[in-house]
Amino acid sequence: MSAANGLAAALLLLLVSPVAGLSATAPTWDESRVISEATSGLFHSPKGKYFDEAFGDSLEYDAEVVDLNGDGRPEVFTQVFGSYWGGATGVQMNLYIKRKKGPWEPQFGFPGVYNVLKTRHRGYPDIEIGGPGFCFPVWRWNGRRYAPYKGCP
After folding, report:
1. pTM for the full model?
2. Residue of 29, 67, 84, 152 with fewest CB within 10 Å of its CB?
C-alpha cells in the first residue's frame, strides 16, 4: 500500500468509527476460527495480509467479529486496504452473516468504511457506508440481507 493510500485509509478510519462498543458486549469466540470460516479461509486472523491473485500482490486486511443483532452468534466485518480494491476510499469492506441453517453470506463487497448506527430494523442496526465526500448512504436489514435505505443525491 502506498503511503498516500495508507494515510487516506487511516484518516477515513478515524473519521468514521466502526463498531465502537459492540465487541465488548459480545460473547467470546475463537476469532481466528470464526474469521476463517466466514471468509471461506481467505482471512485467518483479525489483522494480516493475503495474496490476491487478481491483483498479483499481497494486501493488508482487518477483520472484526461482532454480534450485531444480539442473538449470541457472530458476524464478521472485513476491510481490505488499497486502491486496487478500495477505489478512492482506499478500503474494500464486507460483512458476513451466517444464517441459522446455511452458509455465511457476504453483504457488501464494495469500497467504503462501515459505521454501525444506533437505529435498528428487524433486529440489526443500520449501517452507514463512509467514503469520500459529504453524503454517506445508509443500508438497512430487510429481514434477509442489507439493502440500500437512504441514498445520496
Report:
1. 0.81
2. 152
